[in-house]
Amino acid sequence: MDDRDPAFVTALREELSRLLHCEQILERERLQTIDLLGHLRKHIEQARALLEEPANAESRPGECGSATSTDSGFPANAVAFGNVADMAHDILRERGREPMHYRELGELVRARGGDLTGPNPAQTLVARLAKDARFVRPQKRGYYSLREFYPRSRSVGSRKKRVVSAKKTSPRSAKAQSSGGENGVL
Q1: Residue 143 is inside which H or E element, if any?
Q2: Of 26, 48, 83, 168, which has fewest CB within 10 angstroms of its CB?
Q3: How crowded is residue 154: how many other Cβ atoms within 10 Å of its Cβ?
Q4: Over the stretch 108-158, which tens digit does the pLDDT of each residue have?
Q5: pTM beyond 0.70, yes or no
Q6: What DSSP character marks residue 75?
Q7: 11-57 pLDDT, tens per residue?
């Protein structure tokens, strides 16, 4: 028979479970980092190819074919740094159906070159997600995913709109409107 303290065994099992969960998170982040490294290497090779191309006398800075633009016609840094919401969308799509905490999402956006300035970069990201209908908060506060994975969930910013509209129509004013005015007179 096992003579170990049951509370110790339970605590040890909980610690093992926590460590295994941490290992899964770290492995996922390692794979995302490898993916990010592949994207960065691709951009480096594209930049090298642009630098090695002979200069075209007809190209003007910022136009397609010039050393300061990409195939899309946008400046090279626009592709590298991009829109923060688009970066968050790409990260969440790569992750799949599993929601991500906004702090972790903010760190990954910053790692990809996203411009999250301000005293609280993660809060800046949340403010930007609230303005974009592609993002939802499917489970609990602080966790975000994409509408394509949770089509019935409300948008991130919809809660604020709902509260404001509920304040505008109180039960008393609704009753007065249905009866024809404050005194019931038309």
Answers
A1: strand 143-146
A2: 168
A3: 14
A4: 888 888 888 778 888 888 888 888 888 888 878 888 899 888 888 877 766
A5: no
A6: B
A7: 999 999 999 988 998 888 888 888 888 888 888 888 888 888 765 54
Ordered by start, the domain boundaries in the chain are 82-163
Q: Give me the DSSP letters along 113-130.
A: T----SS-HHHHHHHHHH
Rounded to the nearest 10 degrees, what angle do helices 121-130 and 84-95 cross at?
90
Q: Please state, in angstroms and rounded to a whole number, the distance separating the CA atoms of residues 43 and 55.
A: 19
**Three-state DSSP class for 166?**
helix
Q: Decide: 84 and 111 in contact? Cβ < 8 Å.
A: no
Between CA 67 and CA 47 the distance in angstroms is 8
CATH class of 82-163: mainly alpha
